[in-house]
Fold this protein.
Amino acid sequence: MPDVQDCLPTALYRAAQVRELDARLIAAGTPGFELMQRAARAAWRALRRRWPQAGEVTVLAGRGNNAGDGYLLAALAQRAGWRVRVLAVGDPAQLGGDAARACAEARAASVAILAWSECAPLTGVLVDALLGTGLSGEVREPYAQAIRLLNASGQPVLAVDIPSGLCADSGRVLGVAVRAELTVTFIGLKLGLFCLDGPDHCGALEFADLQADPAMIAQSVPAAQRLTAAGLPPLVPRPRNGHKGLFGHALLVGGDSGFGGAALLAAESCLRSGAGLVSLATRGEHVAAMLARRPEVMARGVRSANEIQDLAAAADVLVLGPGIGQGAWARSLLAGLGALGKPQVWDADALNLLAAGQLTAPACNWLVTPHPGEAARLLGTTTAAVQADRPAAAQALARQLNAVVVLKGLGSLVATPSGALYLCDRGHPAMAGAGLGDVLAGLLGALLVQGLAPVTAAQLGVWLHACAGERLGRAGRGLAAADLIDIIRELLEEHSPCLK
């Protein structure tokens, strides 16, 4: 399934890492001004490809190296015969080093450089060269007002390296941020372009390595890796004489009164994603619905922990939590299962019970799938704090629980206790609905029971789930969680054919 995003590098970096790479390139013999010129040329090429007939450019420039890129782009556009001007939000007299040299080159090219004011007309393609990746606090005036007016202009916007006001590490909007139609980023992909608010603000994304030595770039360990089809290992093809016992037995536990649908979705997802046998322990009132919907699932109504022990003993993998609630029934069923030493997926209220101290974390290979609110409860913080730096929160939770963590949301993250971090940049807004997490939990259980390690199951499962939602989301709103199940099955077969 080709996608333009798969043409981008897989390595993602924090801002400090990219600045270090920039410094190493300069120390190795590439002058900083040469790198700035390469960045400007890359951005100018991208602008012409995107808006070849525009004929007019307005650059909004700050007073750092990001502004230097903008001044040089303005000089290139002027020499190409376009109508060009720079609105200097940062005083050009305060520019230093390479940025000052870039401003001088723009003046030498006869670019009109004007002091920015709120009354200045914003026409043509607008180039955001205001604030770079070094921004950490809230955007201050007059930059904040310049960004607000730029966003309200209705004109196409190209952001140089990163949309101004967006945190390069977390993707959080620092008060206000540019909404670009196109962002051209340099040397290394910034993690924040793919997290939280990043995708909504960067628009289409292009990457320019500025002719950096690949060997030098490879010396820097990325902060995260993007998940792509090419980077995910397939499931092992099945032998022709295979039987259900070879492909694992998964037990799903969930579905308190009024929440049976969550357990049914998880069980069906697990079955359709390749588990050899699927059992469901749920409230007795849901058994008939499960048999009517999917008779292949071995559904049993259970009332207490005693009734679930034989089911758990027979299973290879446990999926705990979909629709289970936080009452006495849930606590009774889940209390002893963590001690079984079997691979497990914990989701939904199983995580909330764990956060409340009602359950003990298992000492085995396990995988947890919190949304930001559940992650906040487990970390003892707020949802806003988790969202403010999703990568850091996912890594902290993986260390705390000694588990593989899937932090759900835009730019879903997979984190391991060792600190490894993976990001999925697929998906669709139509996936914002009930039951999608239950489908994911069942899928992850199926991948575990077919022999994948928790981290590999998490990577493949998150990617399949997001790609299925993306494929279905193109039809628009109204996506139902159950719609994903058959599409996941198709995608899984495309990625991992059952037979060679």
Summary: Residues 454-473 form the longest helix (20 residues). The mean pLDDT is 94.
